[in-house]
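Input record, target 12 of the design panel.
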């Protein structure tokens, strides 16, 4: 019995985690009631209004979102446009229906021997590596930085190309053989210290980025002994 449990535990942990590229792959339509209601009510209204068989559409994900909303993910843009069009006719003015723009995944490339111009780097990646339909792929180099002895680059690309990168594990660029990794950019607000928004759009109260205090609102400098000691609990009063 114990060995069976161990086998189940091992097989569960060997399952591949979903990558960011897999998570964003597909097209998404969001249906949200203009007045907050239960998700169950929204789901019933959508199912009554839309016939997926008649519309010839398939889904990859359906889930509840806040304020009684519903998110539907499909493989193609054509499918979500059908849902949007039909929902607008049948659900009328009680719901807000929009196609959600998906963010492209990012890839980190490590081991570049030379500082390459962004446009040249894009050309090298597409021409030196065997990617099917590469002429139709979206790829943009966001940044190239020097590390200790070599360079690294962050690129933005479409989900299909990202999956090819991650499956290969390495790519050729010039005379370099570079490792590739999934890269998820994280934005931090330098006003409140929270994540996923920028300071110029922040509506929260300004805080110290070291201790979250609202008493001293600017980031503390190491040469300011009084403020630095406040983080250590030292009082001069």
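The sequence produced for target 12 reads:
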């Amino acid at each position: 019995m114990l060995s069976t449990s161990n086998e189940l535990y091992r097989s569960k942990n060997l399952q591949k985690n979903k990558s960011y590229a897999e998570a964003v792959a597909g097209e998404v339509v969001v249906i949200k009631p203009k007045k907050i209601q239960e998700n169950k009510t929204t789901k019933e209204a959508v199912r009554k209004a839309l016939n997926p068989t008649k519309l010839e559409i398939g889904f990859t994900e359906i889930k509840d979102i806040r304020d009684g909303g519903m998110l539907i993910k499909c493989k193609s843009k054509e499918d979500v446009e059908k849902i949007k069009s039909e929902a607008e006719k049948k659900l009328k003015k009680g719901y807000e229906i929009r196609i959600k723009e998906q963010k492209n995944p990012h890839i980190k490339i490590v081991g570049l021997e030379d500082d390459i111009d962004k446009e040249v780097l894009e050309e090298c990646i597409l021409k030196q590596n065997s990617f099917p339909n590469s002429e139709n792929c979206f790829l943009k180099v966001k940044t190239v930085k020097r590390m200790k002895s070599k360079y690294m680059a962050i690129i933005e690309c479409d989900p299909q190309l990202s999956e090819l990168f991650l499956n290969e594990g390495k790519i050729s660029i010039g005379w370099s053989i570079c490792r590739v990794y999934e890269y998820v950019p994280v934005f931090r607000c330098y006003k409140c210290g929270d994540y996923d928004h920028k300071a110029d759009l922040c509506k929260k109260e300004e805080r110290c980025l070291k201790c979250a205090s609202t008493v001293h609102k600017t980031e503390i400098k190491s040469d300011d002994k009084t403020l630095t000691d406040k983080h250590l609990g030292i009082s001069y009063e």
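The radius of gyration is 25 Å.
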